[in-house]
Design goal:
Layout lengths: L3 E8 L8 E9 L2 E6 L9 E4 L4 E4 L1 E6 L8 H7 L1 H17 L2 E6 L5 H8 L7 E4 L3 E3 L29 E3 L2 H14 L5 E4 L18 H13 L4 E5 L2 H9 L4 E4 L5 H10 L2 E3 L2 H14 L3 H11 L2 H11 L2 E2 L15 H6 L5 H7 L2 H6 L17 E4 L17 E6 L2 E5 L4
Parallel strand pairs: 1-4, 1-5, 6-7, 7-8, 9-10, 11-12, 12-13, 13-14, 14-15
Antiparallel strand pairs: 1-2, 2-3, 5-16, 16-17, 17-18
Helix pairs in contact: 4-5, 6-7, 7-10, 8-9
Length: 414
C-alpha cells in the first residue's frame, strides 16, 4: 500500500473544538504515522491537497442490526439467512458511503459477516459484533406472538433462539448463553434489561432479568475483559442495570433527571438511538410494524428528546447510535440533525468519534486523529463544527473517505 500524505488540512481530532489549520498527515499502511504543521518530506508518498477542508476521524455508529431486513422482526425470522445477509451488505455499504468507518452490531451480527467484510467480500466499515442478545423468555428478545407455543415451527428454533437473540432463564442458562456468544467472537454481550417496541409480549415499563442473572453475565464478561450493554427504556430498568454492573445502556429513552445523575455518578455510558424512533413514527405502519409495536412506540416518542436533555444536563457519557431497521437504513445520518435539537455540533461530533471509541474500548486507536491511530478518516467539504448538517447529507458533503488506510471514496482527484 502506497503511503499517502494529506496536505493543507483543517483537523478536528475527535475531541478539541479548536481545529488546527494548514496541517499535513502521513498515512502509512493502516495507521497514521505523522501529523505536522509543516510539509512532510517523502519521495514516494502520494499527495492530496485538501485545500483547507475539514479532516476528521471516521464516524462510528454503535447501534446497528445488519441482519434486520424488515421493521417487522417476525418477518426477518422467516426471510432466510441469505436474504438478511443481502440486506446487511446493502446497509453496510451505505454506512461506509455516509462516512461511518466503524459500526457495532449490537444484536445479530456474527463471525461470518465480520469475516466477509474483513476478506473484502462485503464492502463495509470495521465491524464489531455482540452476537445474539441474551434475553429472558417473554422478554424483548422473544419475538414470538402470544399465540405461538414453545414448539410451534416456523417462528424460531423451538423457542430458544432467533436471528437476533437467544433465550436464557436462570443463572446457569445465562452463563452458558454468554459463554457461547463470547466463544463465537462477540465484542461484548448485550442483554434485554426492559421491555421494548418490537416485541409483542412485554410492556415498555417491564424490568427484565433478576439481579443474580445480570450480575452473573457481567461477571463473565469481566473475566473476558469486555463489558455488558443493556437495552433499557424505563428509568428504573436503567438504574438497576448500572447498579448491577452494566457498563453501557442502549436507548435510555425514558431517562429522567434523577436517573441521569445516577448514571453519570456510576460512570456508565448511554447510546441514545433517535433515528429509529423518528423513522418508525413516520413510516412504521407503512413498512409493516405491528399495531402493538406502533402503540408502544408512541408511548416513548414524546419523551425521547427530553431524555437526552437530562443526559446532557447530568454530564452522562454518550455514544452515537441509530438502530435503523429494514428500509429505514437510508436515514442513518438523520441522527445528527435530531441530536442537534439538544446538543452543540462539537458535542455530537465527539459522540460520533472519540466518545464512541471509548465505549468500544478503542480510545487512541479509533475516533481520533493522532500518531499511531488507525487511518480511518473523512474529509468534509465545510465546517461540521458550525454546521452539523454537513454530516447529515448521507455522504454528499464528504470528498474523501479512508478506511484502514485505503481510499474508499475520492472526489478530490476527479
Amino acid at each position: 500500500m502506497t503511503a499517502l500524505i494529506l496536505e493543507n488540512a483543517r483537523i478536528f481530532d475527535g475531541s478539541n473544538e479548536e481545529c488546527a489549520e494548514g496541517m499535513s498527515v502521513l498515512i502509512n499502511g493502516e495507521s497514521i504515522e505523522e501529523i505536522s504543521d509543516k510539509p512532510i518530506t517523502s519521495q514516494s508518498a502520494r499527495r492530496m491537497d485538501l485545500a483547507g477542508r475539514t479532516l476528521m476521524p471516521g464516524l462510528i455508529d454503535l447501534h446497528i442490526h445488519a441482519y434486520a431486513s424488515s421493521v417487522n422482526l417476525q418477518r426477518v425470522a422467516t426471510s432466510g439467512h441469505t436474504y438478511n445477509a443481502a440486506h446487511a451488505a446493502r446497509m453496510l455499504g451505505h454506512a461506509l458511503d455516509c462516512g461511518f468507518t466503524t459500526v457495532r452490531d449490537i444484536g445479530g451480527g456474527d463471525w461470518s459477516l465480520a469475516t466477509s467484510i474483513e476478506d473484502g467480500l462485503i464492502r463495509g466499515p470495521r465491524f464489531f459484533y455482540a452476537g445474539r442478545i441474551v434475553s429472558m423468555t417473554g422478554g424483548h428478545g422473544d419475538f414470538r406472538p402470544m399465540h405461538v407455543s414453545r414448539h410451534d415451527e416456523g417462528i424460531c428454533q423451538c423457542g430458544e433462539s432467533n436471528v437476533f437473540s437467544v433465550l436464557a432463564d436462570g443463572v446457569d442458562e445465562c452463563l452458558k448463553a454468554t459463554r457461547e456468544e463470547l466463544r463465537q467472537g462477540a465484542h461484548c454481550i448485550k442483554i434485554m434489561g426492559s421491555g421494548g417496541v418490537a416485541s409483542p409480549a412485554d410492556p415498555i415499563w417491564m424490568n427484565q432479568y433478576r439481579e443474580d442473572e445480570i450480575r452473573a453475565i457481567v461477571g463473565e464478561c469481566i473475566e473476558r475483559r469486555t463489558y455488558v450493554s443493556s437495552h433499557c427504556h424505563g428509568a428504573e430498568a436503567i438504574r438497576r442495570s448500572v447498579d448491577y454492573g452494566v457498563r453501557v445502556i442502549e436507548h435510555g429513552t425514558l431517562m429522567d433527571a434523577e436517573t441521569a445523575a445516577h448514571v453519570a455518578k456510576k460512570g456508565a455510558y448511554v447510546v441514545p438511538t433517535m433515528a429509529v424512533i423518528f423513522a418508525l413514527m413516520e413510516e412504521g405502519e407503512r413498512l409493516g410494524l405491528p399495531a402493538v409495536s406502533m402503540e408502544k412506540l408512541r408511548s416513548v416518542f414524546s419523551s425521547a428528546l427530553s431524555g437526552m436533555e437530562h443526559m446532557r444536563d447530568a454530564g452522562v457519557k454518550l455514544g452515537f447510535g441509530t438502530d435503523l431497521l429494514g428500509e429505514t437504513y437510508i436515514r442513518q445520518t438523520q441522527e445528527f440533525t435530531i441530536r442537534r435539537e439538544v446538543f452543540e455540533p462539537v458535542e455530537i461530533l465527539r459522540q460520533a468519534t472519540s466518545g464512541s471509541a471509548e465505549i468500544l474500548m478503542r480510545e487512541g486507536e479509533l475516533g481520533c486523529i493522532a500518531d499511531g491511530a488507525a487511518a480511518d478518516l473523512i474529509v468534509v467539504d465545510g465546517d461540521p463544527l458550525k454546521d452539523i448538517g454537513l454530516l447529515a447529507a448521507s455522504g454528499e458533503k464528504l470528498d474523501l473517505i479512508i478506511r484502514r488506510g485505503e481510499i474508499v471514496k475520492d472526489r478530490l482527484s476527479n
